[in-house]
Structures
1.
Amino acid sequence: MSQDSLLSDDFLRSLMAVGQVDVFVGVPTLDNASTIGDLVEAAQQALAQFFPRDRTLLMTSDGGSTDGTLAIARDVSPTRAGAAHTPQALRTTHRINAPSHGVPGLGRALRQILAAADLAQARTVAILSADVAGVTSEGIAALIQPVKEQRFDYVVPVYARHPLERPLVTQLIRPLLRAAYGRRVQEPLAGEFGCSSRLLSHYLAQETWGGETSRHAVDLWMTGAALSGDFTVGQTPLGSHRVAPGRNPGFQETFQQVVGAAFACLEYQAAQWLDRHGSEPVPLIAPSAAEPGVAPSVDGTRLTETFRVDLRSLQAVLEPILDGVTLSALHRAAATDGTHLHYPDALWASTVYEFFDAHRRSVMRQDHITQALMPLYLGRTGSFLIEHAASDTATADAALESLCLQFEQLKPSLIERWNRTSQR
């Protein structure tokens, strides 16, 4: 898809009036009325305070909001709270607020932002998430400065989280992507990041825009594209992470979209990661002073009981997906009552790898495959929560590290499956 089809004539004229910029901040939006005003204000303050000598542009691209998000963004005054004209600012922060064209969604809005940044020849780009509440000007600057001043290509946040929070990331996405790409990124699903012009060009050159890979869980796809190439990656602490209330799809929809996008991303980029072994740390650009969050109050036993019940009914679905040894091990685990059920790291890693292989081979409809993985994920998550409900953060973090190492150690089995099916 050409950039011309992404950017209207009026938008192009606005962009040409701005000219070339040093720092470009983009905010893709979709029904973010509760957060967009404060976020635009914080972004203006960050550009004025931390980049007063640079030519800067702040752009919001709306993916089809129905709650007035775009109007609120437009109404934020450039002089609100002195944001754009503080005494330190030597240049005006330019602003563009525009709807995206075509199929609604954040992916489309994000691509419009990247295309605009490319046309503006931006040297440094930051993408902010309007789903996050409480973003500060210092946090925005922390995504931009390492790219601008230290020549990082990709900078992602590290949030102050309790190790039992966000199990979809800690139990599945993080260990899977770490083992595949060989880089230890804490937040592979972060919707905010900084990137260089070199990585920006790489993003726009991808052929997957508009497909399932970039339409759902687009933040994961951006991370995968950065990790699969020869790009310098860094992490910066951004404190706590609070998702604003509003557009929250159900867990089943989120699970299927995220896992499906992860599998599709890995398949598309297989040539870049199949030969990678082990993993290397991704540098933390600044130390974190924030304390981990409070442990979530989740009933792990309820999750393991759901797993035990669903496993029996899924037998016919799981047989073409899982190896017989793996499926038998799952039934042995499920034979224990939910309070004491143990789903080992190695068994979980094998489960995920076999599901990925089945998804790649399309042994059945791919959405049915990701749907069938969800009860097993609940069993694994419930098992981990039960085991570490009373653990301190250091112990729980060590357990998450052991899980990641298990995914790395079993990666050869995934590669063997991949090569075997590729030769058929």
Note: Residues 53 and 179 are 41 Å apart (CA to CA).
2.
Amino acid sequence: MNALIDFSHAYEREEPHLTLRAYLNHGQIGEAQVQGYRAPAVDFQHPIQAEDVGQKATVPLTRQGQGQVYYAMRLFYAPTELQSQPLNAGIEVHREYSVERGRGWVLLESPMHLRLGELVRVDLYIALPAARNFVVVDDPVPGGLAPMNRDLATASKADAEKATVPYASGSWWFRYNDWRAFGSTRWSFYHRELRHSAVRFYSEYLPAGQYHLAYVAQAIAPGEFTVLPLRAEEMYNPETYGQSAPATLRVLRDGQQEARK
């Protein structure tokens, strides 16, 4: 509190009474009146146009009146095509699908093939070179799969527990020997949400290191599905993130043969 008081004495002596304008190059994108210390935050938005892509631009701000102005600028975009290679912007992620066949687990490679009703084990690996805060892991679930929730009476506990059995040969699990599991320590992932569209894991603080998360899903619908990229990011600093490559999943009916090239 003393630090805030000192800061206000140094930088907030004049109560804000001003007009703020924002521009993209020479075109105005917003104007706001800021009156008083309790004035709400202002949000200016400029939807990206086709002619903006690939161009360099400046965002000038002008102020008329008195008082301090604090601002932040963010760029949000969605690619027209899925990124085919993994991305590492401060967090490294990797996802594996494996299926139990014969006496062990077999890693699947894209395009992955499952039989209707088969169980797939999903292993998520997160590597942090430095400590991160409030990291959320979002793993989209393709339409042909349904996560197994052992807390529901309709789910088989034995099937849901398959996420704890030994790993398939060639798994990323064998690259390191210091994986930190879900809920293993206070500073690990502590909350999980199993939804039809995605499985999400949450944390408050993660020291640098290797983290492993897992769940089991069942093939419930035949067809060909896109497996969207796994993504991990700091919720309050989304520029720090990691993203895996997408994949293709084919769920086959009984008696249906795999397509061969």
Note: The chain has a mean pLDDT of 89.
3.
Amino acid sequence: MLMTDIIAKKRDGKVLSDSEINFMIDNYTKGIIPDYQMSSMCMAILLKGMTREETLAMTKAMMDSGDKINLDTIEGITADKHSTGGVGDKTSLVLCPLVASCGIKIAKMSGRGLGHTGGTLDKLESFNGYSTSITEEEFLNNVRGIGISITGQTAEIDPADKKLYALRDVTGTVPSIPLIVSSIMSKKLAAGADIIVLDVKTGSGAFMKTQENAEELAQELVSIGKMAGKKTVAVISDMDEPLGFCVGNALEVKEAIKVLKGESCGHVLELVLELGSCILTEAGLAEDHESAKQLLQSHIDNGSALNKLADLVEAQGGNREQVYNEELLPKSTFSIPVYSSQKGYVKHIDTEGIGLISMHLGGGRQTKDDIIDLSVGLVLNKKVGDYIEENELIGTIYANSEVKGRAAAGELLKSYEIVAEKVEAGTFIKKIIK
């Protein structure tokens, strides 16, 4: 085969065969096909699209480009979760131990934050000594022993995606749905879980800005998962404002712990119960969503979910006492309160802007190699639909540089749009796709 012929075929809107897709992915991963040819192919896919059969073939070819995790030796039902990214998204920190406390085995490989979106691995490193780079044997032993492990993806898993993702990032081809789907699902399928639940974000702080685009992506993700033989569900949730009240690694860990203690509810708990009930019903542990939510809530109420988080932290080298005492988690030097300059109702929060504030404080990465400050970020006191008085507290900046903190305070104030007319908050859970 010739790559030029395959590029021309897709350029003309024709359907590629499985063998052509396998040839393309295999030889690109090996370095035989150069970046400039794969860039051309990515643009052709962006413009001409792919059938589901083509997307499935590409997903499988990427999955087969490296090692796969074999979970066959794990007794019981295994589950994995993926989020398309957002601001203040600490869902995995609550969902994974909660579902594991109900008897589902959680075998999860997570990523780091990049740009305005946070990463689960960064948050977990707020626990002193927590290792995100354990061996596959340790990973499997933790899943067997305590029912949960969350670690980073090894270099040997899905190397095709690493190369393609970097290429798409610099060639304007990130928004292609087939390329997004194959990127996400190749990693999830390589991880080997029986059930895959997907949290697809939509709104100003998400990569999918409109619900229509989010639904299209969610439907394709679910279809590819099912075609690959996995129980797959997607929940579309709102990202027009940050999830919860805290943005920043250790701050988000504290909020997650509060949810697991039953001290905080709101959208974080709502989303966790929705995603968790999808897992429990797919696993056959609950007859319907309502009974599944009741079971999940009972494991928050009796403390078993919080204890499971402590078990996870300890098993991967961290200090379990930090789960029970938030004062032991990283703390910033400065806390700067931010007050409203007007009264009225919160109509809009610049969600991406909030994420960038945390990043510029030192709590995020612009490149994967940046060193982050786990203690910085911000806590919001007001969300969309809330009424606020003039000079009332909007939020607090946590920083280790007073200059950066003061600058962030000004940016936080500008992130809020306040109007005189009453504002109704929108629906948070937009849709469930099975």
Note: The chain has a mean pLDDT of 95.
4.
Amino acid sequence: MIEPAIWKWGLFNLFIVLLLVFDLGVLNRKSHEVSLKEALGWSAFWITLALLFGGGVWHYGGHAKALEFFTGYVIEYSLSVDNIFVFILIFGYFSVNPVHRHKVLFWGILGALVMRGLMILVGVSLIHRFEWIIYIFGAFLVFTGIRMLFQNEDSKVDPTKNILVRLLRKIMPVTDEYHGSRFFVKMDGRRFATPLLVVLLVIETTDLIFATDSIPAILAISRDPFIVYTSNVFAILGLRSLYFAVAGIIDLFCYLKYVLSVILTFVGIKMLLSHTIYKIPTGWALLVIVGLLTGAIIASLLWPLEEKKEVDL
């Protein structure tokens, strides 16, 4: 007889695979430029799906587990916005046709699901085996939050220094021009990679770098691998539509760097205080994070920054 935990993991992953197959094989068989209206619609769909799943967690696992899921989801989703700004820079740097960006993000997110799943399992295992490592994660998040506050935005992405891109160019020739939405093309009997594959590798490695911040952040909220994994998955699934939505309303996030810096520092402090009498309850953490994000958007609307960098969308 199969244990309930295995059924739980198996059914969830089967559901996600079916969603992805339906997305790529039915809804987006043909490459097209995603409009703001379509992006907002899909963002609403993924958020609703996450809320429904969280409701299921509440029903079957209780309010404590549900709070962990919702708090982890909000943290991951808010940190995903920072990823999006970098994705915008990457697409602009490589002059990727907006028609093909959806496909790159689809495969990039699929790879992110696998990589983050492995990182979560390792992280949870380390905390369960070596309890003291939680203080290392906490200190790392505080350091990352403070560093983010003073980090130059232009220094975040330099595709020419990407290790995987340089390795790809050594093992396989890369064409000078794009070939539609194809990652590989055969010419004169030789297989070539296209610049679109280079873009995909940069997206993947960039997400992996961001995961070093987001995974410890969610481990400050929950140590249940299923809660950590599912909240990550729903945040990542909504990342693609969120990219196209944010690209259309980018001015709403001019204070993003500052609020994410505060969120990471706050979550790091929560982790450092987890074994003291000053332990921060998950419910309060959720309220603080939602309040910070809401305040940042309101501040962006009321007091937009005068100096805005032009970004190639």
Note: Residues 36-302 form one domain.
